[in-house]
Write a structure and sequence with these properties.
275 residues, alpha+beta, six-stranded antiparallel beta sheet, five-stranded antiparallel beta sheet, 7 helices
Length: 275
């Protein structure tokens, strides 16, 4: 009688020497490890890129584009009546900005949800989800030594450069300085998030100096103090916020300044879009 065929597993087991089987297992394990490492690397890369600090020159190029980009914008505006009816426009955006002053004790009382992103000058920033932002705003109301200096908001079109300014202009001779909070922003809503280029500067009047006209220090002293100045490109959750802290710009008495910028997509009636 014909013998029965051997099981496939037995044939396969004998067809590969023991050394080769171990080599195949090691190769498979190495492939799995490489896939996992690649996934982690991509995840970390994406996480690190949701906030990129900008230099003053980089922010200036965003606020004041070169001649080619200016020409492109002019052509776009001239031809807008032709293509705008066929283009699906994005939602409008509400940009809200708040400025707080906090003592050292207040900083200890406010617990933030994640580790900060640190700039080379010491400025720190946090990206806040909508729930975290709401909890932080409520917490700041309960801290006695946290003062809300000012708050304002503006409505802007999707992808349009805008400026929000709160305060006054100090004029000394032919020079002028903004006093208060100035926020320059170009924000665009897409896929439930807001991609924005943001520049922030907070200033206040310098203490009055003694009347000494002959003093060279008096002639060169600036009449304003910069509490915070920074710029970044950031990806924010819709309805969330960016918190910027002035740790790198310490003022007398240990006062720190916080700026919270919150973009929210809104419909034609100004109602928030939840998506």
């Amino acid at each position: 009688m014909d013998s029965e065929p051997e099981p496939l597993a037995a044939v396969t087991s004998r067809s590969l020497p023991k050394g080769r089987r171990w080599a195949a297992l090691a190769l498979a394990a190495a492939v799995v490890v490489l896939v996992v490492l690649a996934f982690v690397f991509i995840l970390l890369l994406r996480t690190n890129r949701d906030l990129i600090w900008l230099t003053p020159d980089q922010m200036a190029r965003i606020e004041h584009p070169g001649p080619l980009l200016q020409m492109r914008r002019k052509l776009t505006n001239l031809t807008r009546p032709l293509w705008q009816p066929f283009r699906r426009m994005g939602p409008n955006l509400q940009i809200k900005a708040s400025l707080f002053s906090l003592s050292g004790k207040a900083l200890d009382q406010v617990k933030l949800p994640a580790a900060p992103r640190l700039n080379s000058d010491g400025t720190r920033a946090w990206i806040l989800a909508p729930n975290d932002l709401a909890m932080l705003e409520e917490k700041l109301k309960e801290v006695p030594s946290a003062s809300n200096i000012c708050v304002a908001a503006l409505f802007t079109a999707n992808g349009v450069q805008s400026r929000l300014s709160i305060g006054e202009t100090l004029r000394v001779g032919a020079n002028s300085w903004p006093i208060g909070l100035t926020v320059d922003v170009v924000a665009k809503f897409a896929a439930g998030s807001v991609k924005a280029s943001i520049g922030v500067i907070s200033t206040q009047r310098a203490p009055a100096l003694p009347d000494q006209p002959s003093s060279p220090e008096l002639k060169t002293a600036s009449p304003v103090i910069t509490n915070l100045a920074t710029a970044c490109r950031v990806l924010l959750p819709n309805g969330g916020g960016l918190l910027v802290d002035s740790t790198g710009w310490p003022q007398a008495g240990g006062t720190n300044y916080w700026v919270i910028i919150s973009p929210t997509a809104v419909d034609s009636r100004g109602q928030p879009i939840k998506r």
